[in-house]
């Protein structure tokens, strides 16, 4: 069979449902083979959109999402999604075309060494040089992409290799069992937890797996140890749980850090130094047990005293079996902090000023979105407010990026979430800056017939950097711009645009949009004027309760 026929057959063997992308002339053999497949081609308007959708597919399913681009500029547009998937631990396969490698009459036209370019930002990158290698390369790429820590892989298929004959041979998908942690490490962890007086549990992005969620819930129920999470660990445990203290949305100074500083032991499950630190370790601070698929990567703010390396769910299950609540454990201070955090976070949530405060927007969105609804964030200062103030009830119900923290991913990730969860309501929250980086995917969303809501928090500026600029004492300079009429912009794509002018009207419009068909865009004016006084000045002056 033709090499691309074998390629498609190998992808089907891996259970691929969708390929997101923009084909070029170097992909035409692949496209010809794909039209006879059960795999659906999702044509996007930019390779970034395709890459972000593929990465989010990997994040939500645990199986690599697949995206397609041509050579040269098509392939270079995959760089940001590759880094997004690699740093975020999302399995993704990128397929790119290339000029013929045996004989080409176009010189160096559009030629970039894509394989070498991808090497620093992927787990695996390879050019196919013979059709008979196609199936084994696909199997290896998928294995590597899913292996902990998951990430991005890349296959380059030159135009002449794509068209040549190849032997029909497919490799069976083998199930790999993750190793268990060393028994001595488990025993040491048990002793450290038993000996502690005020242990805390921290849940990070690496624990955002279904098996880990169940194991951690049982652990918390049995031991009663309070827990908090990182931004990307939100929702692993239902945040309505009585033992939940809050989210470490900032690295230091937040009210939650009063509890962290008072703890004498932190059981850190699934944390990765790639994610923004939820707290800074100090020599005189709490000891840390690192529970993860791989050993801790040491840096100046993270140097755990014990590594428990192995399958997270199994490690937590073994710790749970060996532990019972200890009479000398005292969590009373933690719960006093929890009440303080709750009081602080509720401030301004019902404030009816307009343009709307981010705290109020978060409150309304949480109240109007179903318990199993999915909220995706782009990147901006509002991400801090959602991480602190938005309670999650299920894992992967709040999709934010605290690893690469790229702008432009919020809309494509919401589109993918809706595509594979058609019965769940989906909202994408973007800043005006981030939205415009991939706003052309509105056409893709409309063409796919997705029912979803896009909320643009509009301050006509790069708000995150303005907040940082003010916090560092610099003058306001160089970060303001003008926006298009977002309502007309949405309508030009066949979506429905809304521009509420009050707190009450926003709630009404959002409720209606969530219950309506089609893509709805809400242009929501936002007021970030309190960010500096609350997040910079106020938190640094806080006094922890006794």
Description:
- This protein is an alpha/beta fold.
- It has three domains: 3-163, 3-Layer(aba) Sandwich (Rossmann fold); 183-340, 3-Layer(aba) Sandwich (Rossmann fold), CATH 3.40.50; 347-536, Rossmann fold (3-Layer(aba) Sandwich), CATH 3.40.50.970.
- The chain is 39% helix and 16% strand.
- The chain has 22 helices and 18 strands.
- Strand 7 (199-203), helix 10 and strand 8 (227-229) form a beta-alpha-beta unit.
- The radius of gyration is 24 Å and the shape is globular.
- The model has no long low-confidence stretch (mean pLDDT 95).
Radius of gyration: 24 Å
Helix content: 25-40%
Task: Count up the helices.
Answer: 22
Low-confidence stretches: none
Query: What summary fits the major beta sheet?
Result: 6 strands, parallel
Could you name the key traits of this structure?
single chain, 546 residues, alpha/beta, Rossmann fold, 3 domains, 6-stranded parallel sheet, 22 helices, 18 strands, 39% helix, 16% strand, globular
Give the helix/strand layout.
Layout (H helix, E strand, L loop, with lengths): L2 H11 L4 E4 L6 H7 L5 E4 L3 H15 L3 E5 L2 H5 L2 H10 L3 E7 L15 H5 L5 E4 L6 H13 L5 E7 H5 L19 H13 L3 E5 L6 H14 L3 E3 L14 E4 L8 H7 L2 E5 L17 E6 L13 E4 L2 H11 L9 H15 L11 H11 L5 E4 L4 H8 L8 E2 L10 H11 L5 E6 H6 L3 H7 L4 E7 L4 H9 L14 H7 L3 E3 L4 H12 L4 E7 L5 H10 L6
Parallel strand pairs: 1-2, 1-3, 3-4, 4-6, 5-6, 7-8, 7-10, 8-9, 10-11, 11-12, 13-14, 13-15, 15-16, 16-18, 17-18
Helix pairs in contact: 1-2, 1-7, 3-5, 3-16, 9-12, 10-12, 11-13, 14-15, 14-21, 19-22
